[in-house]
Write a structure and sequence with these properties.
252 residues, alpha+beta, globular, binds FE2/S2 (inorganic) cluster
């Protein structure tokens, strides 16, 4: 396989991949995507399980299904989920993203989701920085995917705000900087036969309510009463370079 994951597999393998994917996305350990984020073993120390939101298909600007094969390795894309105003980074990595044990800012443990696609290289993360909630807007973005340094994976999520760096190959864990928790993961569903993608939930420390509170005035101005609308049945995917007019370069 070349450097653009997401091509169709053969029939039986594709079906097996699909079943495996659905199993992994729908059930994380013993806990399935069914309702709000819960703690499996009581407050405080139990593992986090995924938070199911609506099933939203990723589409291009013309409304056609967005395919995994359209993701070039290392080129960040943006869509919005689970709310119409909350941005997500979608990307294909040069190697598989693995499930690793993580914990959120409240010390709730969870196991990250592996990547999806034929080689488990497609991942999606909330693009709201876990430190002070910087996020990409159509005007400017201070948070983006950048090349990793020598001791890092090939690509990292880097927020210029205070130079937090996150590892997209390992559940968005914090590599360096002041961020107190990993980026929230977006659970994706991949159809091996059609190569189509759906967002179905989140996993990890969500920042959505803090985001709405911090940016309430701006979101009201831009979206009015629709600022907190859940994502519709489809969400448009765009290259990050096309989504924001200015991509702020970081010094670090
Ligand atoms: S807001 Fe992103 S590192 Fe501070």
């Amino acid at each position: 396989m070349g450097s653009t994951p997401g091509h169709e597999g053969d029939g039986n393998a594709a079906q097996a991949d699909r079943r495996d994917l659905l199993h992994r996305v729908a059930c994380l350990g013993a806990a399935c995507l069914a309702g709000p984020l819960t703690l499996a073993h009581g407050q405080g120390q139990g593992p986090l399980v995924a938070h199911a939101y609506g099933r939203t298909q990723l589409v291009d600007k013309q409304g056609r299904p967005f395919k995994g094969a359209q993701l070039a390795v290392g080129e960040p894309h943006i869509f919005h989920y689970p709310y119409e105003t909350t941005p997500v980074f979608l990307m294909a990595l040069p190697r598989a993203a693995t499930a690793v044990p993580l914990s959120d800012g409240q010390k709730h443990r969870y196991e990250s989701l592996p990547g999806i696609g034929p080689q488990q290289r497609i991942v999606a993360y909330s693009a709201i920085c876990a430190h002070k909630l910087m996020y990409p807007t159509p005007q400017i973005s201070f948070i983006n995917i950048r090349k990793g340094q020598a001791d890092e994976p090939a690509h990292v999520v880097h927020c210029c705000g205070d130079n937090s760096r996150y590892d997209p190959t390992q559940g968005g864990r914090v590599i360096s900087g002041p961020a107190p928790q990993p980026l929230a993961m977006i659970a994706l569903e991949w159809n091996a036969a059609s190569d189509e993608l759906h967002a179905v939930g989140t996993l990890g420390g969500e920042m959505f309510q803090a985001f709405f509170e911090k940016y309430e005035a701006r979101l009201q101005l831009e979206r009015g009463a629709n600022a907190r609308n859940r994502s519709a049945q489809t969400s448009v995917v765009q290259a990050a370079s096309a989504f924001s007019r200015q991509l702020q370069s970081c010094k670090a």
